[in-house]
Amino acid sequence: LAGSLPAILSPTWFTSQQLLVPPPITLTLTPDTFPPSSLLTTTQLGNPYFLLFCLSLTILQTTSENHVVKAYLRALWIADLSHVAFTCIALGLDKTLDNYCKLER
Fold first, then answer.
1. What is the dihedral of CA 59, 64, 70, 72, to 10 degrees?
2. CA–CA separation, 18 vs 100, rounded Å?
3. Using CB atoms within 10 A of its CB, is residue 12 exposed (0-12), middle (13-18) or buried (19+)?
4. Which residue numbers delimit the DUF7704 domain (predicted)?
5. 1-59, pLDDT tens digit by residue?
6. Mapping DSSP to helix (H, G, I), strand (E, B) and coil, where does residue 18 land?
7. How far apart are CA 48 and CA 45, in angstroms?
């Protein structure tokens, strides 16, 4: 849910946070700051996160079968590891660790 709401409710802000260099503080973010296609892509990106939230609630609340829960958690684990791996590939290990170290301060 936390990944979907900012992208859906505030696509302009969410898009600005994805930039390599954030816009200057003096820049007022309006829907006209970015092309409509960028804002649409951001909103559409939030939708799969919302879907995952709904699936999590549905699967984990309605099943009592351990193999279903294990399979679901295994899929989430694989997706999470691939997310981290793709981030490392795109940013490089140094920048990935640099961002991680900034969070730890």
1. -10
2. 16
3. middle
4. 1-98
5. 777 888 888 888 888 877 766 666 666 777 777 888 888 888 888 898 899 889 889 98
6. coil
7. 6
